[in-house]
Amino acid sequence: MDYEALAERLLPGDYPDLASYEELYPPRALPKGAQVTRLAPSPTGFIHLGNLFVAIANERIAHQSGGKLYLRIEDTDLKRKVDGAVEAVIAALDYFDIRFDEGAQIGGDDTYAPWYQRQRAEIYRAYAKDLIRRGRAYPCFCTEEELSALREVQTANKEITGYYGKYARCRNLTEAEILQNLDAGKPFVIRLRSMGDPSHKFIFRDEIKGEVTVTENDQDVVILKSDGIPTYHFAHAVDDHLMRTTLVIRGEEWLASLPIHLELFDVLGFPRPKYGHNCSLMKMEGGSKRKLSKRKDPELSLSFYRQEGYHPFAVKVYMLTLLNSDFEEWHMKFPDKPLEEFKFRIEKMSRSGALFDLDKLNDISRTELSRLSAEEMLAFLKEWAETFGSDKEKAYFSDEAYLLKVLNLCMGTAGKKRRKDFVTAGQAMGEIGYFFGEPQQKDEYRVDNETKNAVLAGFLDVYDEADDAQAWFAKVKSVAASLGFAAEMRDYKADPSAYKGSVSDVAEVLRIAVTGRANSPDLWTIMRILGGERSRARLAAAKA
Ligand code: GLU
What we know:
- The chain has 544 residues and is mostly helical.
- Among the domains are: 3-15 and 121-278, HUPs (Rossmann fold); 372-435, no CATH class; 449-541, Arc Repressor Mutant, subunit A (Orthogonal Bundle), CATH 1.10.10.
- The chain has 23 helices and 13 strands.
- The protein has helices at residues 3-10, 18-24, 49-64, 85-95, 121-133, 144-156, 175-183, 232-242, 258-268, 302-308, 312-323, 327-333, 358-370, 374-388, 391-394, 400-411, 425-431, 449-462, 469-482, 489-494, 503-515, 523-530, 532-542, and strands at 36-39, 68-71, 102-103, 137-140, 189-192, 201-206, 210-215, 222-224, 247-251, 274-278, 281-285, 288-291, 354-355.
- The strands form 5 sheets. The protein has a 3-stranded parallel β-sheet, with helices on one face. It has a 3-stranded antiparallel β-sheet with strand order 4-5-8.
- Strand 11 (281-285) and strand 12 (288-291) form a beta hairpin.
- The longest helix is centred in the N-terminal third of the chain and has 16 residues, at 49-64.
- The protein is elongated.
- The relative contact order is 0.08.
- The structure holds glutamic acid (GLU).
């Protein structure tokens, strides 16, 4: 077969010679040990926690080693493309402080551009043409119908599906047959002529999973589709080489394609990058683990965290907790150190599924939010509310001095120990709602209606907004005593049957009347912040 002529017939025209690409995209001048990593999302519009998980690992390893992280957009599959998806990816990752050095819309060094695969079509064709010339790729004229019939036969025979070995019909077409098909104008794809033997197994060192046994590829995978656009497999190999990627950390769903990728690197004459396949995020359901699913778990989508108002720092802390087993201890020891100071190690990454637990994230979120200053909290809430807040919530920011008082109280900034009332921005806005507008009664009174009214009436009689905390509490006690409640806890504890209850039950009535809830920060301070008029109005309104 005249491969040279075949290559010319299949991909006519002059393509740059491959050595020129090596010059155009030269090896990077980086210090020894520096890793070049990448994120290579397809612009489908859905960016999920798994992407963030992998992004953090790639980012840490690149930057910690003095290397680079770049963003490549794998847009070869137009059917899956969604407008605005690239901007959405960048915005989502930016929110979690993932900084790229170069790549699509990053504005960094563009030596290795273009970053969109569709703009690199000529490069892939040049490499494909070279493979045809070398007899390592061939045209395939099989139709969709023929391929699905083949799949059916293979499935019925319980065989591996695909285009390989005896099933690779077009692999052995003669030159005359090929020319006949081309003359007849039949559409074709270009396939790799695999030289692999599935009876050969070899050990591959995965950077995360350790030694894995890999079966040689024998699939004649499509490398160029009939429109001349490459498949993901082919494009990623060419790009990872020319963009001088040294380490690919990606989800373990790609492990199954590894044999194809290794063969492609080899046949293209590229040194292989290192690969690390990251375990999937799992969730407990019933008594068993399962993968997080797009359909069932809203928390899989990164937009969930923005909408709910999780602090990106807290999410990052949790992701790092899952990624590196010694991170949690380090962060507890040095809560104020920048996360970048933690020595991230690929060897510490989990080999099997990491368990994602929203309750654990919520715990971390409470702790991280409690470490903010009230001013930082205000800025965080404000940013969230601008996009996600209701009109009522947006109005909380019209008097920032007032809001700061509220936040200082709810965060316990004056006390020895911080309060941990806030989990997310969305939840925090709900928590402080009673400082704005009328409180919603969240908790029920535990005393009967008559007692409740008596408490409220008794307290309204003596309430004076000018009272300091001590004088205020003395009045609560006196109301308690006058209605048959123990004014002192120790008296009540000594003989509960002698009283209707204790001063804390009386205080709870006042608390629910003023805030709508049985648990709140210090009530005297709340009433101070609300002011005498509003406090009085609430006490009166609750008296029904
Ligand atoms: N485009 C692939 C994806 O969206 C990237 C796979 C890889 O990282 O090699 O998942």
